[in-house]
Amino acid sequence: MTEVSDRLARCFSSVLPNMTKEEICEANVAALADVDSWAAVTLIAVIDEEFGVAMSPDQLWELGSFQAIEQYLSRQDRPGEQDLTSNT
């Protein structure tokens, strides 16, 4: 795991302490929101605080998974790099 993924896993774990590291790495945001929407909102706040970003709920839903969130946050740590998810 990278530093970003370790930090993100700690964010998930602080909000969802009953999830294993393996479950966290496979987490799907939509499934999380269906189970506990308050946890999803709390997760956004924890990620914002940990990484110094201002992620909106829409961004969280669009990203959709732990892995996609990790990639997004990794790009935030390296400004100027091309967004590999854009189709332009």
Features:
Non-ribosomal Peptide Synthetase Peptidyl Carrier Protein, Chain A, 88 residues, mainly alpha, 6 helices
Walkthrough of the structure:
- This protein has helices spanning 3-15, 21-25, 29-35, 37-51, 57-63, 66-77.
- The chain has 88 residues and is mostly helical.
- The chain has a single domain (3-77), classed as Orthogonal Bundle (Non-ribosomal Peptide Synthetase Peptidyl Carrier Protein, Chain A).
- It is globular.
- The protein starts with a helix and ends in an 11-residue tail after the last helix.
Fraction of helical residues: 55-70%
Strand content: under 5%
Mean pLDDT: 83
Which H/E pattern describes the elements? HHHHHH
Number of domains: 1
Globally, the shape reads globular
Q: Report the major sheet.
A: none
Number of helices: 6
Please write the CATH class name.
Mainly Alpha
Residue runs with pLDDT of under 50 for 5 or more positions: 80-88
First and last CA, distance = 30 Å
CATH topology: Non-ribosomal Peptide Synthetase Peptidyl Carrier Protein, Chain A
How many beta-strand elements?
0
CATH architectural type: Orthogonal Bundle
> C-alpha Rg, in Å?
12 Å
Helix vs. strand class: mainly alpha
